[in-house]
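User: Before I run my own analysis I want an independent prediction to cross-check against. Here's the chain; please return only the structure tokens and, at the end, one sentence I can use as a sanity check.
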Amino acid sequence: MPALFIMVLVPLLGKHMDIKLWFVLVFVGGILVSLLFFVFLAAWKRDAAIGLLQKLTSLLPKAIASKVEGFATGFVDSLLMGASQPRIFIPAILLTCVAVIFDGLFAMLAFWTIGFFISFGTAIFGYAIYNMFYILPTPPGQIGSNEAVGLLVFAVLLQVPQDKVFDMFLFSHPWAAVLMCATGLACLSALGLTISGVLRVRTGEINAKGESTLLSEEQEAISA
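Assistant: Structure tokens:
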């Protein structure tokens, strides 16, 4: 959603956009518009929407087509189900807005920590564009890509000194990992769970699935 607003605001703010940033904005905006069109079509005529989706995905390799079709139909069904329950849907939207604000605060305070002061507006604008790059494939843990994209967005677009951008991401990357681990452990504790307990349950599920698959294969071999 921020992609559409940013494409409108950039000319008004007088920012110089690199061609790579425009590509990501247009790409993300195109996906958003396509999803909105598909949502409205599915709400009006679901069968027609599914038929159109199957025709479009037939142009892709079979493995990719099935994943795209599953994602699109699941996304639309979840969105329509959520919209039909405003008491759940509206708080979810508000929580998303709060998360975006926290993203901006995280970026701003990370810059402040390394001794470079930027405004909240600059931080949330840059971080909104930065997060759009997650739609593209990234290495495990975003190691390397965080710094590269951060330099592109904050140094090239927002004219923040490159050394300050590099220092900020060098600090924030491991700090984010610490925060995620700490909040994850706190959430498990609040739910009355432990890491070992969760791992045991997960291992049991995998073993159960393996046994079920083996049993079905044996049954198929017997019937054949």
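Sanity check: DSSP finds nine helices and no strands in the chain.
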